[in-house]
Amino acid sequence: MPRTANSHRLRLGRFSEPGRLYLVTLTCHRRYRHFTSLTAGRTFVGALISVRHEARTLCYVVMPDHAHWLMQLKVGADLSRVVQKVKSLTTRQMRSGGGLSGPLWQKGFHDRALRKEEDVIAVARYVIANPLRAGLVESIGAYSLWDACWLDG
Questions:
Q1: Domains of the chain by residue range
Q2: Per-residue pLDDT, 34
Q3: Looking at residue 100, what is its pLDDT?
Q4: Contacts by residues 95-103 (CB-CB < 8 Å, ≥ 24 positions apart)
Q5: 114: closest CA among 105, 104, 106, 124?
Q6: N or C: which end of the chain has fewer CB within 10 A?
Q7: pLDDT tens figures, 67-108
Q8: What is the 3-state secondary structure (H, E, C) of the chain?
Q9: How far apart are CA 129 and CA 150, in angstroms?
């Protein structure tokens, strides 16, 4: 399979800074809709929980063909390694369940380090509103595959 043109550019300038907030986007291979069931989506969520010692999840949304994850990198963690671990854990779990035979994820990922002055709540609202903008639901309460740390009370 040929490499995507300029895919190496996703890594240029990538820097892991402990305590920094990152908005990470992971896309399914060829934009295939792997996460159309609650079970498949929860597999991704389980992977996020597995890396909780390396990254604090502020919010996430799992869309049918991609996922957004707003997280804070913990001391000693490397952004690329944490994301690779999430992708690997999700892939292994979906393969063991028999629902996946080929690749799950596109190579690489997109990340954006948030600036300290950015409104984190506004970014989280933007992430969580993805199913609304995509027309998947009319109310975010009708979509099951999202969460935010501010809801824990």
A1: 18-152
A2: 95
A3: 84
A4: 97/39, 97/43, 99/40, 100/34, 102/29, 103/29
A5: 124
A6: C
A7: 999 999 999 999 999 999 999 999 999 999 777 889 999 999
A8: CCCCCCHHHHCCCCCCCCCCEEEEEEEEHHHCCCCCCHHHHHHHHHHHHHCCCCEEEEEEEECCCEEEEEEEECCCCCHHHHHHHHHHHHHHHHHHCCCCCCCCECCCCEEEECCCCCCHHHHHHHHHCHHHHCCCCCCHHHCCCEEEHHHHC
A9: 15
How far is residue 106 CA from its own chain's centroid?
A: 12
User: Which of 64, 59, 63, 67 lies closest to 86, judged by CA?
Assistant: 67
Report the distance separating Cα 39 and Cα 49, nearest Å. 15
CATH number listed for the domain at residues 18-152: 3.30.70.1290
Computed on alpha carbons and rounded to an integer, the radius of gyration of the chain in Å comes to 15
Residues 23-55 have pLDDT tens digits of 999 999 999 999 999 999 999 999 999 999 999
Length of the chain: 153
- Give the global pTM: 0.88
